[in-house]
Amino acid sequence: MPAWITGEAIWTWALYGAILLLTAKPVGIQLYRVFTGQRTFLHPVLRPLETGIYYLTRVDEQEEMSWYVYLLATLAFSFIGLFLLYVIERTQQWHGSLLNPEHLPNVSQFLAWNTAASFLTNTNWQNYSGESTMSYLTQMAGLAYHNFVSAAAGIVWAVALVRGLARRSGKTIGSFWVDMVRCIVYILMPITFFYALFLVWQGVPDNLVSPTIAHTLQGGVQTIAQGPVALQEAMKMLGTNGGGFFNANSAHPFENPTPLSNFVQMLSIFLIGSALVYMFGRWIKDTKQGWVIWGAMFVLFSAGFFFAVGFEQAGNPVIAAKAGVATRKTANQPGGNMEGKEVRFGIVDSAMFATITTDASCGAIIAWHDSFTPLGGLVPLTNMATGEVIYGGVGAGLYGMLMYAILAVFIAGLMVGRTPEYLGKKIESFEVKMASIALLISPANILIFAALAVMGTWGTASILNPGPHGLTEVLYAFTSMNANNGSAFAGLTTNTNFYNITGGIVMLIGRFLFMTPLLAIAGSMAGKKTIAPGLGTFPTNGPTFGILLVAVIIIVAALTYLPAYSLGPILEQLQLHAGILH
């Protein structure tokens, strides 16, 4: 292990990995029982609420949908929500003194469009400062509502895909409405309630109090914003939404007050994504399949973390060589690259948080990724470019990883000269075509819009750091929006008409166009019969498949994005070393 990777980094990684592993099975079992309609320990309290919702909405609990009806229900529900959030933002000035105590004006039309698309798609990209732009009603009825339903939508899409893979000769993949209700009632709502209480205990406010005006000892005036923070904070982390109540996001002490709250927030980002993988193995009655995928995710997460923390602990080589400043950690100073880091948490936690939040579609931050070293900042950028399949956002990680699994068995089938099989079902041309389409959507979405941005002043005028770093900022912005992550590299002014309009389009494509072919795969696989494994069947429940899966993800990402990254973070790192020589 390189000298600049400290013992703190190793034990933090080990503790985090151990707790994540221990939570995967119990939470995964709860997910399995909920989505298969089995009774859980929450049923005596929450079953009346579930049936009451079905009664009021006229939903038949027993009726199921084909994959395209499931898709249509998803789109109808989502775009009605988009419209309602846009209206709430555009009528904000009439929300009243209780729900808009600062009398904030209506959100401008293009910013409202971008924000509505952002929270609809679980991206939570924020081209605004939350405490000075959005009223309490907008925060609670608009943004916090979408934190719940967008997270639930991602989870149920993964559930639909798993259901399709597990069924034999079926024509349906479940009911979108039933899956959504069960997800919110039995999973998100109970966990969020107790999570919010924990955050209040740690010091996160949750009130409707107007901002406090404080007079400093120097005679200045400071406005201290408060509000309904704890519930939104809990859901933003658990649901991998990431949008902060405050502009500083999780670096703000009212969102993330203590080292304990910071660790729990990092754990909650992966909690459901990790458990969904175990649920997958349990559902298909082969838990080894789930653990292989879980292991592949953990390997990729670990590699990203140690790569990032290594470069951040090593610091800027130019400063060390030219200024003679010590950049190694000692008993008296943290060493490394502390620029942009939250000093309460330091380099290790900042690098881990950056890795976790971009492995998942969370986007919450405790350090500014723009201030990372070039190759340290490459880690969050690459995490998102892979489709955030490393545990991923709620649902998104699993269905993205299953896409790669289908491609991996297709490649394995080519190597042994047989029709590829996965979970006892033939992978035929339709599934490969759909997986290939899903795979191509993300790079096309990112690279086309990034190229458009650097073609004229409509995009380049927003770049505050010219050169390769500026290109990285543009690539990061569109990668984050496509991946429905929402974290910003900073250094790029995106509250412009161009970035607001194109950003909203990119987020919708990254969410719905990527998911559509995967639901088609679910429908196709549900209708297939299982076949007995033969001599040429490639086993997918062992370490060999896990290695192949990791290799496919790395190779696809490298072939797709290396040319662009060579002009951005890689070139910037080479310039740093060139600066030492000159």
Short description:
The chain is mainly α. It has helices at 7-35, 43-57, 67-90, 96-99, 109-120, 130-133, 136-166, 176-202, 230-238, 259-283, 287-314, 317-323, 346-359, 374-385, 396-416, 429-453, 457-460, 468-482, 497-526, 543-566, 569-581, and strands spanning 212-215, 221-224, 421-422, 425-426.
Describe this structure in words.
By secondary structure, the protein is mainly α. Helix content is 64%, strand content 2%. The chain contains 21 helices and four strands. The chain has helices at 7-35, 43-57, 67-90, 96-99, 109-120, 130-133, 136-166, 176-202, 230-238, 259-283, 287-314, 317-323, 346-359, 374-385, 396-416, 429-453, 457-460, 468-482, 497-526, 543-566, 569-581; strands at 212-215, 221-224, 421-422, 425-426. It has a two-stranded antiparallel ribbon with strand order 1-2. The two termini are 30 Å apart. The mean pLDDT is 89.
Strand segment tally: 4
Strand order of the largest sheet: 1-2
Looking at the structure, what is the overall shape? globular
Question: What do the pLDDT scores average to?
Answer: 89
Put simply, the count of helices is 21
N-end to C-end Cα span: 30 Å
